[in-house]
Amino acid sequence: MILYGLPTCSDCKAALRALADQGVTFRDIRADPLTAAEWAPLIAEFGDMLIDRKSQIYRNLNAWLRASEAEAQLDAQPALMARPVITDGSRWTLGWDTKAQAVWLG
């Protein structure tokens, strides 16, 4: 199981604590950015929902980048990703709400 996120993200921290006994691996998307091939399944699964449009980083994007596709936005600013994204290879969740918790905690 992999959790994609940022070490400063409160939802990522909560998910990591809850999933600690399940052997979750944390991937810091800022320190270890994803390649285009690694972004592809996330974008296929979540589309534009993968972009955190409420973030300061998004508000600071120039108009051209704001109008660009999710792939270009995430390539330029990986921290734009809504967090956390959790996968076990076959299932994917975005965020750490009750629906995501039900998937991973039963």
TrEMBL record:
Pfam family of the protein (one): ArsC
Stated family: Belongs to the ArsC family.
Protein name as catalogued: Regulatory protein Spx
Organism, as annotated: Yoonia vestfoldensis
